[in-house]
Amino acid sequence: MRMLILGATGRVGSVMTKLAIEDGHDVTVLVRDPSKVSEHENLTILQGDACRAEDIQRAVTRNDVVVSALNTGGATTLSDSIPLIIEAMENSGIRRVVTIGTAGILQSRAEPHLLRYQSSESKRKLTRAAEEHEIVYQQLQASALDWTIVCPTYLPDGEAVGNYRTEADRLPEGGDRISVGDTAEFAYREIGERQYVGARVGIAY
Q: Would you state the torsion angle of the CA atoms of residues 155, 158, 160, 164, taken in this order, to the nearest 10 degrees?
């Protein structure tokens, strides 16, 4: 499989890149600083910016699937990049995309008409990051792509242990954390397993 990974220098993205390379996939990464990525025979490293249309189109074109593990960067990286990703995928005839979101954009259990970040379930006073992730969700939902948004809750560093729970559109009840390793492993497997196409997926222990 030919796979583009955006956000490959981040915590989840770097683990997904490693998993894909180890499985022998042809992996492309688009990064601002190529020195942050170790070279490998199965890895194509492109220098560029996920918020520039020409860079995204160049990166997307030769691939079968797109993974976005981009974070907000404290700004509008997600809302700026997602329309470019969708357009480039549609231009190239690519349908499968898996992104890393946040549990804040899952439906609230207490107030089902609200997203978690909008409800009494949220413990965060700042909502800017969740609002960015919601824009990604809205735009993917409006697209014709085969999308999945993996939505971890509190995300400490840690290896994959495999005993986590997942649920479509909601956070598994009582879930309060999930490691970087397990989030990356689940998202990587979901690319091919396609269990949650057209859905947000809550993941937690």
A: -40
